[in-house]
Amino acid sequence: MSSNTRIKSNVKKHIPKDWLSELRILYRLGLQTLNDIRRTGWGNIIIITTMAAILMIFAACFRSAISISSFSKELGNALEISVYLKNSTDAREAKSEISQFEHVENIEIIPKSDSWTKLKTEMSLPSIDNPLPDTLHVKVDSPESLQPVFEKIKEVKSVEDMSYAKDLAAKIEFVNHIVNTITLIVVAIMALLTITIISNTIQLVIQARKEEIEIMRLMGVSNWYIRFPFIMQGAFYGLSGSIIALIPLEYIQSGLNNVHKFFMVPSPTYAQGLVILVMFSMSIAFGAIGSFLCIKKHLQV
Known about the structure:
Blueprint: H1 3-14, H2 19-40, H3 43-78, E1 81-85, H4 91-98, E2 104-110, H5 112-122, E3 135-140, H6 146-154, E4 159-163, H7 166-208, H8 210-218, H9 223-262, H10 271-298
Antiparallel strand pairs: 1-3, 1-4, 2-3
């Protein structure tokens, strides 16, 4: 670091901060942002409406994805691994051993006498000795854990045979994968459209203020002082679009809640709040990013 730079930094540290001046600067930047929005005129309505439509599609896909994942999880939780034990095995000891495996949530012992009694009530069977084994019904914490737990239980010496609805579990996992992929694609499209729309809008505002910006640069005005109103304008469009998108989102939420009630599957309590939080955060962020990229492209500040 040069001596001049060191002296400047030391002097700057000892200069008292004038909070009133900083508030005045923020106030002027806010006014400049409002003036830029006002200059856009009727274009604001088109931009905000377009943003709201994009955000509505995103929110609908995201909220539906949460519900589909909830249905898949509920269906997956009903799946269980049936473990058939050898005749000489103590079912309680086998249960104790398997319960120590990771992802195992619950184990129910089905004595072979109960299975045989139930089978005889359902079918006409001759008087023979009970050929059925003791059975363990193993529940895991998620559908994705079924296969790993299945492989671990297979290595237990007291296990004779095992089964579970492997095809159904694979289909549930596939559905979750498709839903997550579609959600990511929608997010990418939303980001691209938002950034493109905001960039084109800010470019028009920059052209309208070109001479004013040149004068500010010649006067030595800070780069961030020039950038800030444009970035705030992009964030404003994102925020406004999100607010309007809340209206159709409420109807989507109500419709999905009715679907959950019909199938008697609990609706995720966090879903609506999460969708709103993500929608607002992403729209404001993408709006600001779109403005910033446009500034970097069309302004050397």
